[in-house]
Specification:
- The complex is a heterodimer.
- By secondary structure, chain A is of the alpha/beta class.
- Helices cover about 60% and strands about 5% of the residues of chain A.
- Chain A contains 19 helices and 6 strands.
- By secondary structure, chain B is of the alpha+beta class.
- Chain B contains 17 helices and 7 strands.
- In chain B, the strands form 2 sheets. Chain B has a 5-stranded antiparallel beta sheet, with no helix packed on it. A two-stranded parallel ribbon of chain B has the order 3-4.
- In chain B, helix 10 runs antiparallel to helix 15.
- The chains are: A alpha/beta, B alpha+beta.
- At the A-B interface, strand 2, strand 3, helix 6, helix 11 and helix 16 of A face helix 4, helix 10 and helix 15 of B.
Chain lengths: ~475, ~450
């Protein structure tokens, strides 16, 4: 292979730091600080369920029960969002959005609904475990495109405040995803917020864009709370072994009957194959031997955790092995939770190390490790989700800093030399490092930089805003 | 198990007149990563559904308990009394526990009623306070019965209910939630004294932060403001909207009377003749304010004088509340000067009421003190961080056999910082004793602890 081609290929393949260039205008604090908000306020809320209403809107988009299927139009709108704003055909975009009106009317109601009821998902997580289906959560990504496009159209039509209003309504869906109890839902919430923030960057370049410092400050911090998701991940682990969870929660309870054990064995075999732990790899005999070999160690480990040794000696070895695997999962989830509860600069590196350790966790060479590597098979890559959350919070903090800069520029006519020169409003720290953003000014261009914390994060983690003052 | 006896002295700081309290605390086992040791109910324990409808069932069940027990749950009770109270309220307690284990508490319908001015507060929540107060009692009972794990579980359910009430739009609910939260933290403090209480550092760390969200507080205040004067908010967005009807206007008078009764508005606003005169005199000024805000002159002139007077007053109060809400979104140290400045403005307006052409109805005087709320909420956060710091010290003492010389020497877990200063709490070691000084002069009401922790010799398991 041509070495030059290889270099080019490698360069293309390597992820790049996110670099956003904006030409912005000075903007003073608005007289009414609440005139612009980036989430619908309580005053606007109506009693209702956001999730159910999104379901209704998606049916309309799919042409159910009758009507044209509009999903193709949604795809066209999404393509428009990926183009630079100057290349967007305004008329076409307006026409496409007009076709969405029936769905948008329902989505407007959804954005103002007082609750996001994920009860069905909660129940599925507990009873179906990792087999839980989440069709609606992915639809949030689809519907938020419509709000992002409406914001873009408003910018093109010189209505920046309407654009901000659309972004605010869309943000409600990010928060709604956050209320769903799984890490994948949080990732959807982050994706939804990111789609909208990309449009917010566009709105910021509009000469009439009001200062958004306070609107951004009023948003929940952190914007996505992973604790609920971690709770759901724990429920998934236990829910995946329906019927066995009682031995984890109440180890002193009655012994399983022979019939129950047969069901456990059958369902466990099916589950193992579904989660990628094929018995073909080790063979039924091999697995049996492994479980027997680790049996005493498992009892010892579980006893140390408060399980009654006498009772466990009456359990079949497979049950001991599964409970050992589940308790191991719980402890690792607990460690992950601990890291998530800390600020990113403390917990982030811990979580990445934990993720790595989980991927390697198997019955060997650690003698105390369970025979069944459930931690490796069932636990989420929480470190990656944590990184995504931190990246989103960093973006919000960077935008707040930009608004503080615009505010300063409205008073002095220029960028400050350092962030500490800004005295009109408090300048937020970078939530990734816990320190102020790196900031420089060269040739009138202000550069705001959020560096990687350790070498373990991908280059996407790094954030640059290059700002030219008009 | 290695155990340390810690002597804890709580003395009143300069900001409070609390009497000195001496407590004996036994150190805890190391923090376990096992998620069993947690405070709020987990998803696995929860039942799908809405807790709010259960409150009505609780009220009904309370009606079946003899009236003589009305105050029993609020009194300091002996072990026997506690047993009796919990037995008599068994059915109520079961319902409260059921509610605490629901997946959500939907305040939507009540919020809608408040916004429309149909209710000013929910009488239901006032009635069920007694039931919620059973949870801290139950926690104490479990502790007395030597069941710390059960006590922590009951405290967790208490926290769940308290946090839901804090998120709700109802003032009674918030008052109850506030009191419950402090009682929950008291319960945790008590549980930490038990020899078999596990270390709660991570369980405390896992709680939502801030415990009491002032973000929602500001939103609720604004909702209540407009809800007290139904029909006017629709004119804000659309000046051509339908004018408020008779039923809506009837609520306005009721709201003003309530605000006067609560001492939030001055008595003279109830004097109809005086108010009519003020409306007449200040009408041009009100009209000017509305014109400056961009309302079309022809619409303003079509509105009754009362609407022209109320709308600027509401907009002014709303903006003031909004400023407080935004200040609360900042870290305490940044928020405080803003809150002080906002409160000063209100004080100035209070001193010149009825003396100039200020809004006819000084609704901005009815707002809560920005600094007062900030201080209370920060005190709650600080209380929680103190408990976390103590648990971090316990962990270090458990590992090394003695307290660290500095908080920075704790390596087992990250040490919390004081939410007021953003820096670690003042701490020192004097011999075997550790002193955690949380009192603060610079932040009145923000703290009141001066704790001396003394380890005793290790016990053999």
């Amino acid at each position: 292979m041509n070495p030059l081609l290889l270099v080019v290929a490698l360069t293309v393949a390597q992820p790049m730091a996110k670099e956003i260039k904006l030409v912005v205008h000075p903007a003073a604090e608005p007289r009414n600080l609440l005139r612009v908000q980036l989430l619908p306020s309580l005053l606007e809320q109506e009693s209702g369920d956001c999730v159910a209403l999104v379901g209704e809107a998606v049916k309309i988009l799919k042409g159910q029960p009758e009507g044209p299927n509009l999903l193709g139009v949604v795809d066209q709108i999404r393509e428009d969002l990926e183009r630079p704003i100057r290349q967007v055909d305004r008329k076409q975009l307006a026409e496409n959005l007009a076709k969405m009106k029936p769905a948008m009317d329902v989505l407007e109601k959804a954005a103002r609904a007082s609750r996001c009821d994920w009860s069905k998902t909660n129940e599925d997580v507990r009873t179906r475990g990792f087999r839980v289906l989440l069709p609606l959560i992915q639809e949030l990504r689809r519907v938020v495109v419509l709000f992002a496009a409406r914001a873009r159209l408003a910018v093109l039509e010189d209505r920046p405040e309407d654009a901000l209003r659309s972004i605010a309504m869309g943000m409600r869906f990010a928060r709604c995803a956050d209320e769903c109890p799984l890490l994948i839902c949080h990732l959807v919430g982050i994706a939804v917020a990111t789609i909208l923030l990309d449009q917010l960057d566009v709105v910021l370049t509009h000469p009439k864009c009001p200062n958004l410092y306070w609107a951004l400050t009023a948003l929940p911090q952190p914007f996505v709370d992973l604790r609920r998701g971690m709770d759901g991940e724990r429920a998934i682990v236990i829910g995946s072994f329906t019927g066995l969870s009682r031995f984890v929660v109440e180890p002193n309870g009655s012994l399983p009957t022979e019939e129950e054990m047969k069901t456990f064995v059958a369902s466990s075999e099916q589950l193992f194959s579904e989660i990628g732990f094929s018995l073909k790899d080790v063979g039924r005999l091999g697995l049996g031997a492994l479980i027997q070999l680790k049996h005493e160690t498992a009892i010892k480990e579980l006893t140390a955790g408060g399980f009654p040794a006498e009772k466990m000696r009456q359990w079949p070895p497979l049950l001991v092995a599964i409970v050992h695997g589940l308790v191991d999962c719980e402890e690792n989830l607990g460690r992950m939770q601990q890291a998530i509860d800390l600020p990113y600069w403390q917990g982030g590196p811990l979580l990445i190390d934990l993720d790595k350790a989980m991927r390697k966790r198997g019955p060997w060479p650690d003698i105390t490790a369970p025979a069944l590597p459930l931690s490796r098979l069932l636990l989420p890559a929480a470190g990656k989700v944590h990184q995504a959350t931190a990246r989103l919070d960093r973006r919000f903090a960077a935008l707040r800093t930009i608004e503080a800069l615009r505010l300063h520029a409205s008073r002095t006519g220029a960028w400050p030399k350092t962030l500490s020169e800004i005295d009109a409003v408090p300048v937020p720290d970078d939530p990734v490092t816990g320190k102020p953003f790196e900031y420089t000014v060269e040739d009138g261009v202000a550069v705001l930089h959020g560096p990687r914390l350790t070498g373990n994060e991908s280059a996407y983690f790094e954030l640059y805003y290059r700002l030219l003052l008009k | 198990m290695t155990a340390l006896l810690l002597l804890l002295t709580v003395t009143a700081g300069q900001d409070s007149a609390l009497p000195p309290v001496r407590k004996t605390i036994v150190s805890a086992a190391p923090a376990s990563p096992h998620p069993r040791c947690r405070l709020l109910p987990s998803l696995l324990e929860q039942e799908p559904g809405d807790a709010f409808p259960l409150f009505a069932e609780i009220e009904f069940a309370l009606g079946e308990v003899p009236a003589r027990d009305e105050d029993a749950v609020r009194k300091e009770t002996s072990r026997e009394d506690l047993r009796g109270v919990l037995r008599r309220y068994e059915k109520v307690l079961a319902l409260v526990e059921k509610a605490a284990l629901r997946t959500r508490c939907d305040w939507g319908p009540l919020t809608a009623q408040l916004r429309r001015g149909e209710v000013r507060c929910s009488p239901l929540l006032d009635k069920v306070t007694r039931a919620f107060e059973l949870l801290p009692l139950q926690a104490r009972w479990h502790l007395l019965e030597d069941r710390p794990a059960e006590a922590i579980r009951a405290t967790g359910r208490c926290l769940r209910i308290a946090l839901w009430l804090s998120e709700g739009p109802d003032l009674s609910g918030k008052r109850i939630g506030w009191s419950l939260l402090f009682r929950c933290l008291d319960g945790i403090d008590e549980a930490m004294e038990h020899p078999r209480c596990p270390n709660l550092y991570w369980a405390l760390t896992e709680l939502p932060r801030p415990l009491w969200s002032l973000r929602s507080e500001g939103e609720v205040q604004r909702l209540r403001l407009w809800g007290g004067f139904p029909g006017l908010h629709r004119l804000v967005e659309n000046p051509a909207a339908e004018l408020p009807g008779g039923a809506e206007m009837a609520v306005w008078g009721k709201t003003v009377r309530e605000l006067v009764q609560d001492g939030l508005l001055p008595q003279p606003v109830l004097d109809m003749q005086l108010m009519a005169l003020r409306l007449y005199l200040q009408d041009p000024a009100s009209r000017d304010v509305l014109l400056r805000r961009g309302y079309p002159a022809e619409r303003i002139d079509a509105w009754p004088r009362l609407v022209r007077a109320l709308l600027p007053a509401l907009l002014d109060a709303d903006a003031r509340m909004g400023e407080a809400q935004l200040a609360w979104a900042l870290p305490a140290a940044d928020a405080r000067p803003r809150c002080v400045s906002l409160d000063l403005q209100v004080e100035k307006e209070r001193s010149r009421q009825f003396t100039d052409l200020a809004p006819a109805l000084p609704l901005n005087l009815a707002l809560l003190s920005c600094e007062g709320m900030l201080v209370q909420v920060t005190a709650l956060e600080r209380r929680l961080e103190v408990l976390r710091t103590i648990e971090a010290l316990h962990l270090e003492a458990h590992t090394t056999g003695r307290f660290p010389a500095r908080l920075a020497d704790i390596t087992a877990v990250p040490v919390p910082t004081d939410p007021v200063t953003g820096k670690p709490f003042r701490y020192g070691r004097e011999g075997n004793e550790a002193v955690l000084d949380v009192g603060s002069i610079s932040f009145p009401g923000g703290g009141w602890y001066h704790r001396v922790l003394r380890p005793r010799e290790r016990e053999t398991p």
